[in-house]
Amino acid sequence: MRATVMYKAHDVRIENVPDPVIKNPTDAIIRVVRACICGSDLWPYNDGPNVSGQQMGHEAIGVVEEVGSDVHKMKPGQVVVMPFAYSDGTCIFCEDRLQTSCLHGGFFGQGAETGGAQAEALRIPQADGTLYPLPVGEDDALMPVPPHACRCDGHRPPRGAGGAGRARP
Question: Secondary structure of the chain: what % helix, strand, coil (to 5)?
Fold first, then answer.
């Protein structure tokens, strides 16, 4: 499959990379239909990535293609939005809507563990806690862009968060 890969500042390439596979029973694979670029993609674009050869992107809308045996909320064919962090949805931080601090979570596009969302497909760890179904079809002309999609799904900011927290799923 194809994915964006950053080697150094201003050196981003579209390359063939291995297709994602289910590694854990809580994983899902999505086919990416929309991805976005945000500031945390642009910072390494201007300053260079932490690791040369890093896949980019961490917010997308996709279609669930496959789910692990321990995924119960998602099913193949669903259109979903994924935030920039993956989380289990059950730990003390997730229950307080602080998914970026999840005890079992991490971030997309930050290394080889998950790959980046600016790709044709992506492995989603902790799929039940990470993915949010959208009430649209993949060809819907009114499909929202990923940051807006998080809000459309009824997610709220972390308790006590100011304006910065409002964009978080």
Answer: 20, 25, 55
